[in-house]
Write a structure and sequence with these properties.
Number of strands: 5
Strand order of the largest sheet: 1-5-2
Distance between the termini: 7 Å
Shape: elongated
Largest sheet: 3 strands, antiparallel
Structural class: alpha+beta
Strand content: 15-25%
Helix content: 40-55%
Radius of gyration: 31 Å
């Protein structure tokens, strides 16, 4: 008596030897698809852009945190202006003798009318430190849930209005390089920083398995938000994370064999 039995196999080697001896014929009738189950880490309650898949356009603006960041920038600018006023002239490249007879706001109007001009500052300042500063401004908004264009607009506002035509104009003419290079190069560098911080946040502030390295790099790529987080809390930490199964199609993973077996 012959019986037809439908058996799912990955390879014929899984059959015992005594069964192989009794096989009358083997005919492949169809190919099945066996789905693979992968476990993906997801955040139960997304609170920041770091909890969502990367996108240059997604927005989850945290205006309260951005206001705190802007306040810190303004206070830092005032402190910087005070420190620069007390430094010797050769340390700032400002002509303090020429400015000494002017009032503070008279100096601002005087410099604002003359600029912007192409400055002759040290290239390290113009093409390394200023782009890094722009990246810090950019990340201050990006980590607050703003998209690429929103972060660029904020970076431009801080670098151009708050600093270049703000605090710095009290002592020197606005610079063409600073007006353009700081926000544009800052955006490019800042978006790279954003990708780096996404990796750090996804690994619970660890980098290459190191807690110290993760926190160190986080401070380097996003110093203002990390500083404000010391007082206002860090929404990127203590996230509720769960593992979600995801089905991934795997074609041709198994064969359906129609086997005639003689008993």
């Amino acid at each position: 008596m012959k019986a037809q039995v439908l058996i799912l196999l990955t390879t014929l080697s899984v059959l015992p030897s005594y069964a192989l001896e009794q096989i009358d014929s083997v005919v492949v009738t169809d190919t099945l698809t066996l789905d693979t189950i992968a476990w993906v880490q997801t955040v139960d309650e997304p609170r920041t852009l770091y909890d969502l898949p990367y996108s240059p356009t997604h927005r989850m603006e945290n205006w309260r945190r951005l206001t705190q960041n802007t306040t810190v920038f303004a206070l830092a600018g005032l402190a910087t202006l005070y420190v620069l006023e007390t430094l010797p002239e050769d340390a700032t490249a400002w002509n303090k003798k020429e400015l000494r007879h002017m009032g503070l706001f008279e100096r601002w109007r005087y410099h604002a009318k003359q600029g912007p001009v192409w400055d002759k500052d040290n290239p390290v300042f113009n093409y390394v430190l200023h782009p890094y500063g722009g990246a810090v401004y950019y990340m201050s908004a990006r980590s607050c849930g703003f998209n690429v264009l929103g972060s660029l607009a904020y970076c431009t506002f801080i670098s151009s209005m708050l600093w270049e035509y703000g605090f710095e104009t009290f002592n020197e003419v606005p610079s063409v390089q600073d007006l353009f290079i700081t926000p544009l190069a800052g955006m490019l560098m800042g978006e790279c920083f954003y990708h780096i911080k996404r990796v750090i946040v996804a690994n619970d502030y660890h980098l290459c398995g190191s807690w110290f390295l993760g926190h160190l790099v986080a401070w380097l790529v996003d110093p203002l938000n990390e500083f404000v987080s010391l007082f206002a809390g860090n929404p990127c930490k203590n996230r509720k994370v769960s593992m979600t199964p995801v089905t991934i199609p795997s074609p041709n993973s198994r064969l359906a064999l129609n086997i005639n077996v003689t008993f």
